[in-house]
Amino acid sequence: MDGVLWRGMQPMPGLHEFFAHMLDKNIGFVLATNNSSKTRLDYVDKLAKLDVPGLQPAHIVTSGTATASYLRTKYPPGTRLFVVGGAGLKQILTKAGYLIVEDDADLVVCGIDFDLTYEKVRKATLLIRAGAGFIGTNPDSSFPSPEGLVPGAGSILALIEAACGQRPLIIGKPARGMFEAALRQLDADPHETLMIGDRIGTDIQGAQALGIKTALVMTGVEDEASLAASETRPDYVFEGLPELIGALKRAD
After folding, report:
1. Taking a C-beta distance cutoff of 8 angstroms, is the pair 195, 215 a contact?
2. 1-57 per-position pLDDT tens digit
3. Contact at 8 Å (CB) between 109 and 127?
4. What is residue 245's DSSP assignment?
5. Of 60, 88, 120, 246, which one's alpha carbon is 20 to 30 angstroms from that of 114?
6. What is the arithmetic mean of pLDDT over 203-217?
């Protein structure tokens, strides 16, 4: 969503036309984001504030919900977690039955944290060095803000990794879990699905690994130089949502 549908609270051109077309044509969709700072309901509320009403939590997959889903397969409720991340991620993990603690944690879970402090990084490092597992919600090194690209969860993970000497297990895009969760919610096969994203290394590469066709929009992370330098080639490239909508309408 960040860099495709909006930057901050600034909607991208074509936002409302995109949803109007999808709903008018009864095209199933899921909004999948590597941003772990918010809950699914937070995104439903944000879309309503941007004049896109009527969406449901089932339309949303985040790296936070995907992380909680993964933890359920490996760790029992009550497992102690130290979380480097926002209130949304903590709420998701608490709702899944896990304990958010400040010390003696079994796992360190790290996502985007807009209130990052040295103390949080210090605690995470010491816990991992003492034997705690290390899980990252997503590897995005940058985050598209209204002012431009700013550090993302991947930058925070790189800082902790450099300090503790251990690589995290990544859950979000480009890992399979996010895409598989979206496909399950759509009840769709990869070959009949299109992934629309703004980042080659996560959106495009991750989708192509599952056989999903891809459309890159140039409103987020990538530019002409990074696209030309990439060995990964999207199936389609659009300047933004208006051009994408035009292509969808021509395909009807």
Report:
1. yes
2. 989 999 888 999 999 999 999 999 999 999 999 989 899 999 999 999 999 998 999
3. no
4. H
5. 60
6. 97
**DSSP class of 7:** E
Residues 107 and 72: beta-carbon distance below 8 Å: no
User: Rounded to whole angstroms, how far apart are CA atoms 227 and 231?
Assistant: 8
Residue 11 bridge partners (DSSP): 6
Q: Give DSSP secondary structure letters for 119-152.
A: HHHHHHHHHHHTT-EEEES---SEEEETTEEEE-
Q: pTM, whole model, 2 decimals?
A: 0.82
* Nearest-angstrom CA–CA distance, 178 and 60: 11
Q: Is pLDDT at 91 greater than 90 in this prediction?
A: yes
Report the C-alpha gap between 15 and 19 in whole angstroms: 7
What span, in angstroms and rounded, lies between the C-alpha atoms of 114 and 62?
17
Sequence letter at residue 150: V
Cβ(231)–Cβ(210) under 8 Å?
A: no
| Burial (CB count within 10 angstroms: exposed 0-12, middle 13-18, buried 19+), residue 46 | middle
Side chain identity at residue 56, one-letter code: Q
How far apart, in whole angstroms, are the C-alpha atoms of residue 252 and residue 231? 31
User: CA-to-CA distance for 13 and 23, rounded, in angstroms?
Assistant: 18
CA-to-CA dists, residue 202 to 7, 54, 172, 178, angstroms:
18, 28, 9, 11
Strand pairing partners for 60? 31
